[in-house]
Amino acid sequence: MGICRENEQRALETLKKEVDDPSNILSSWVVGKDCCEWEGVLCNNLTRHVIELSIYSDWSNFLSVGLRNTSSLSTLGLGYNKLTGALPESVGQLSMLEFFFIDNNRLEGVVTESHFSKLTQLQLFSASRNNLTLKVSKNWIPPFQATDIVIGGWNIGPLFPMWLRTQKRIMNVDISDGGIQGEVPTWFWNLSSQIRFLNLSHNQFVGEVPIISTPSWTDEHEGPWTIYLGSNNFSGPLPLISTIVTELDLSNNSFSKGLSNFLCETKNGSYKLEILNLGGNDLSEEIPDCWMNWPKLTVLILRDNNLIGSLPRSMEVLRVLIESAMVTTKGNMYQYDTILALFTSMDMSSNNLSGDIPISITRLAGLRSFNLSKNNLTGRIPNDIGDMKVLESVDLSENQLYGQIPQSFSSLTTLSYLNLSDNNLSGMIPLSTQLQSFISTSFQGNKLCGLPLLVNCSSDDNIPNHEYEVDESDKDEVDWFYISMAIGFALSFWGVCGSLLFKRSWRHAYFRFLDCSWKMLLAKLPIC
């Protein structure tokens, strides 16, 4: 391990004096003890230089002096602290620095070209979620060729950062929430084909998005390839994507037209897309029946569009649906900066969907949150909804559903939020510990009776028969079952009998066989 170099030992001792360390994370930094043995410090075994400093605590002031004599640092990890103040220009003198993490702090002020003046070896710069402003000249050429530039939340705009064009090795870019306006340059869309993680969300970009491609040399097992373009002003049709993209967020833009061109485009190889967020756009037309093209899709968000028509029955292929980003569930709105796998849910609320709720929806056994509110759905609630054993949140409000509430609702012991208001439902609310615990507004705007409503079901007219109802959504499926059974019986019957009827030799052979079989059976019977 070696003994820490004297000048670097003194620099780190000075650093300890500078910082506020309420968690006592630097308790191992004992003066006079080899700094290479201190927590968060890594030294080169041969040169004894400090090459890595990684401290994740709750420091509240930055290192203004202590870093000046640690020029051998290749890794500086100070993310997820509470660092305040400005980023010192002295970091620009760390000529050996390759990996620089200062994300999730409280830094503020202006960052200029001087902060990067000697960072020729910089490969990764992660500094998002600070209150920093980047001010560099329009023609600035950074001294580094980085693979990762993560500065989400910085004030970068209003112009697009043209210096990104010089980064030939770039693979991860986050310039979200940067106050950038206008169209994304064509050269950047071309450059984006090599970017695995692209976050341009929460800006003011306009214009159309071209085909989102990935390089031909890409290994299909590499990834994930994630693209976040949400919360901008992009317009036009949905862009076609490469089969290797795994996450795509185009929410809260002005994309228009339908879903067919996007969902039904077939390419060589199956799509790897797992997360798709198209909520909050101007998409119209019917939802196409192309879900077989997306075998790995686990997240689907289509809410707040102008989609029409019925729900495709083939959507049962989407066995597990996970939604986040902006989730409307249990009556609350949750906002997340990126899509995280927090909820297993389907949200198609606030569209113009019509028709019934297909029985195939109830085969999504992993569904936890189910939101089809604010549409024009008709028909009955599927009786088999009770088969969705892990449902926690159901919102079918503001539709035109009719009939009784299925008795199977009473078996949903995990249900913690229910909203069936403003439909045409009638009859008695099924009795269960769960259903009677909901507030009355969950059932208002219907013709229901029973707790938690104050309308009792004492009269014969209000007491429904909770025998199993046949869903109108299932009628086609049930009829076809019996029809196919009848056709099968008829074909089998006439396939045998027809042969005997029209083929004389077969008829004689068949009856000889029956006669012999009968004689053999009689021979085996005991004689009393």
Residue-averaged pLDDT, rounded? 79
Structural class: alpha/beta
Beta content comes to 15-25%
Total strand segments = 32
Observed structural traits:
528 residues; alpha/beta; twelve-stranded mixed β-sheet; five-stranded mixed β-sheet; 5 helices; 20% strand; elongated
Folded structure, characterized:
With 528 residues, this protein is an alpha/beta fold. It has a domain at 472-524. The chain is built from five helices and 32 strands. The protein has helices at 6-18, 186-191, 260-263, 475-502, 504-524, and strands at residues 41-43, 50-54, 75-77, 84-85, 99-101, 106-111, 124-126, 131-134, 148-150, 172-174, 181-183, 197-199, 204-208, 226-228, 233-236, 247-249, 254-255, 275-277, 299-301, 308-309, 322-323, 326-329, 332-335, 343-347, 352-355, 369-371, 376-377, 393-395, 402-403, 417-419, 424-428, 447-449. The strands form seven sheets. It has a twelve-stranded mixed sheet with strand order 1-2-3-5-7-9-10-12-14-16-18-19, with no helix packed on it. Strands 21-24-26-28-30 form a five-stranded mixed sheet, with no helix packed on it. β1 and β2 (50-54) form a beta hairpin. α4 (475-502) packs across α5. The termini are far apart. The model is unreliable at 320-343 and 461-482 (pLDDT under 50).
Write the layout of secondary structure elements.
Layout: H1 6-18, E1 41-43, E2 50-54, E3 75-77, E4 84-85, E5 99-101, E6 106-111, E7 124-126, E8 131-134, E9 148-150, E10 172-174, E11 181-183, H2 186-191, E12 197-199, E13 204-208, E14 226-228, E15 233-236, E16 247-249, E17 254-255, H3 260-263, E18 275-277, E19 299-301, E20 308-309, E21 322-323, E22 326-329, E23 332-335, E24 343-347, E25 352-355, E26 369-371, E27 376-377, E28 393-395, E29 402-403, E30 417-419, E31 424-428, E32 447-449, H4 475-502, H5 504-524
Parallel strand pairs: 2-3, 3-5, 4-6, 5-7, 6-8, 7-9, 9-10, 10-12, 11-13, 12-14, 13-15, 14-16, 15-17, 16-18, 18-19, 20-25, 24-26, 25-27, 26-28, 28-30, 29-31, 31-32
Antiparallel strand pairs: 1-2, 21-24, 22-23
